[in-house]
Every structure is written in C-alpha cells, then in structure tokens.
Amino acid sequence: MKKNRFTLGPAILVTAAFIGPGTVITATLAGANYGYSLLWALLFSIIATIILQEMSARLGIVTRQGLGENIRTSCKNPMIRGVAVMLVVSAIVIGNAAYQGGNISGASLGLQNIFSSSTTLGSISIWPIIIGMIAFTILITGSYKIIERALIALVGLMSLAFLVTFIITKPDIGQFFSGLLIPSLPDGAALTVIALIGTTVVPYNLFLHSASVSEKWHNIEDIGKAKQDLYFSIPLGGLISIAIVSTAASAFFGHQVNISSAADIAPALQPLFGDFAGFFIALGLFCAGISSAVTAPLAAAYALNGILNLKQQLNTLAFKSIWGSILLLGIIISTSGYKPINVIWFAQVANGILLPIVAIFLLWVMNTDALKQYKNTLGQNILASMVILITLMLSTRSLMSAFGLL
Q1: Of 80, 73, 112, 138, which Cα lies nearest the Cα of 296?
Q2: Please, which residues have CB within 8 angstroms of residue 304's CB and are 6 or more apart in sequence?
Q3: Which among 101, 77, 76, 66 has a CA at the least distance from the CA of 358?
C-alpha cells in the first residue's frame, strides 16, 4: 500500500495566526519580567491548542463544513441562533479588525527596524500601507494553495529568525528546562500566564482550521494527514513562542532594560548582542505581523460566511468583501495613530465569552451522530473537558480584569 506523503496544510495557518505581534510582545514581557519561569504555561497552551484544533480539523473533514456552519445548523432555536450569530460577529469580526491594526503595526515596526527608516507620505507612515498591499495581494488570488504556500514561507522565515535570535542570546539551558517542566507562579505573574495562554488558544482559529481543512481535504481518509499536519505545525508555533520568551529572559531579565512595546525589542537587543540579533528579531516581527495580517481577515471571512450561510468559497464576492473590510479597517487603525483601546476592550470581553462557549459547542458536536464512528473517545472527552474548564477559569479572570474587578 502506498504511504501518504507528509505535507504541511491548514494547521500552518493556525500557527501563522497565533504567532502575531501580540504574541511577540506578550512572550517578550514574560521573559523580561519573569525569566524562564513561565515557559510551562506555553507548553500547556500548545497541548491545549492541539486538543481543540484536532477536534476542529476532524469536524471539518467528516462534516465537510466549517465550525460556523455547524453552529448555524445545530442551533434549532431561532433565539439561540440569533445570540450565537451576534456573538460570533462581535468577537470574530470586531475583534479581528482591532487586532488587525496591531498585526499591520507590528509588521511595519519590523520593516522600520530592518531599514532604519520611518518613511512617511505626508503625516502617514508608508509601511502599514505596504503591509496591507502585500496581504491584499496574497488574499485576492482566491486560491487556497497560493495562500497556504505564502504562509508556509512566512512561518518558515519567522521560525528561522526567532530561533537564530534564541541561539545568539545563549540562554541558560538548566533554567530553560526547569521553567519548561516545573510549573511555578512568581508574584504578580497570574495575568501574564493568562496572556500567554490567551495568545495561543484563540477562538477564531477553531473557525479557520475547520473551514480550511474542508477546503484542502475531501475524504475521511485524510484525517491522518490532518493530524500529521497538526502535530508538526502547532508545536512549531510553540517552539517559536518558547524561543521568544527565552531570548527575552537571557537578554533582559535582571537587567535594567525597559521593554514596553514591540518597538523596543530590536533596539534593546542590538547593544547587547550586536546588529545581527536586532536584525533577526525585526525580521521575525515582520513575518509574525504579515502572516497574522493574512490569517485574521481569512478567519473572519470563514467564520462569518459559515454562520450566515453564505458561500464558503475564497473567490466569491461575499468572502472577499469580508476579508477586505477587515484588512481595510486594520490599515486605517495602524496609519491613524489611534490606539483602539475601547475596541480592543470590547474584543477582549467578546473573546473571553466566546472561547469557552465555542469550545463547549465543539465538544458537544464531536459526540453527536454527525461524526459517526469518528466521534470523540472517552480519553478525548476527558482531555477536552479539562481544557474547557481551564479556559472557563481564564475567561472569568480575563473578564473580571476587563471590567476592573481585579
């Protein structure tokens, strides 16, 4: 029998989506403030992501529908369906528009550091417009294969950039493995742990993954390929995040270096480890920003098309209109200099509510007859339930923080 050849697929889109500028700055601050001690939180988040995304991929291949479509068809009560639609639109579309501004801004900072130039057109920086045009060019093709290959290239370049920076900074291997394998919670680190997990386990990736696997693979037998793809791509993303935390721990922890935004990282590394370190971290930031700038609009389009019962095809006008709107809003936010605090606050609240709800729905549907013999096993249900319980706790803490109760 001919063996299936391993190929990268939709899971690399998930990796491209969760390694964005927000992840870079969150991981950098974790390493700068707490050294290697919070690496275990990233290890947990990767395991949790694999558990949820495996169910999402299996759902997409078996039902030939994305998660948005499954939510719509499974919610028979019109009121419940209406609430579900409103919640998805709020969290995915509005949230992605807010974060898209950060994706484009982060990629722009990377280019600005690489070229040592903040080129402007009047009072407007030219870099966000260039980033937007690159993302537009990739998405407008309407070809899943082209989009996938572009993201594979960007994730590969991003991996190289952050891993080279990791090597240059010469991390303490003993402390590295201690922080990775022995959970600890330094004083004041609770919200940082939540942030680290929250940048990896995100609800819109469940929509993106389930829809994209049904786009790439059309047979039940392809579940094996989807799992191979998943078990390579998600740990690769985790390795990138771990490298960023470790780089920051080696470079900044215990030193009088002030890191408050993504713009501070490359300049802070250069005097300590030379121009090469600054260049590679800037390159990684650019790749993280541009890859997320492609996947965030794509995820919004998949989610909204699915839940509104529109055609789930990349080359349709409705699909292009949705991702085009998200991309345009991101460019406007990143060029205006406006800090979308209120929008991001709303996105944080909506996503905090959405993640456990989507995870609970995913677990429920994975145990229905729609999955036939591919429904969850007892072990899968136990693992998924543990992840959901933890996401509920994290979401509660996140919402309390957003409302000023913590």
Answers
A1: 138
A2: 68, 88, 89, 92, 93, 310, 322
A3: 66
pLDDT digits (tens, 9 = 90+) for 166-175: 998 889 999 9
Taking Cα atoms as reference points, which of 53, 48, 26 lies closest to residue 38? 26
Question: CA 343 to CA 340: how far, in whole Å?
Answer: 5
3-state secondary structure of 335: helix
Residue 72 three-state SS? helix
Q: Which residues of 105-189 form beta strands (DSSP E)?
A: 120-121, 124-125
188 contacts: CB under 8 Å, gap ≥ 6 = none
Region 39-55: what's the mean pLDDT?
94
Phi first, then psi, for residue 124 (nearest 5°) are -105, 130
251, 257, 263, 267: CA torsion to nearest 10: -70
80-110 pLDDT, tens digit per residue, is: 888 878 877 776 777 777 778 888 888 888 8
Instruction: Give me the torsion for CA of 76, 79, 83, 85, rounded to 10°.
Output: 50
For residue 156, give the nearest of 288, 296, 18 by alpha carbon.
288
How many of the other CB atoms lie within 10 Å of CB of 343?
18
pTM for this predicted structure: 0.87
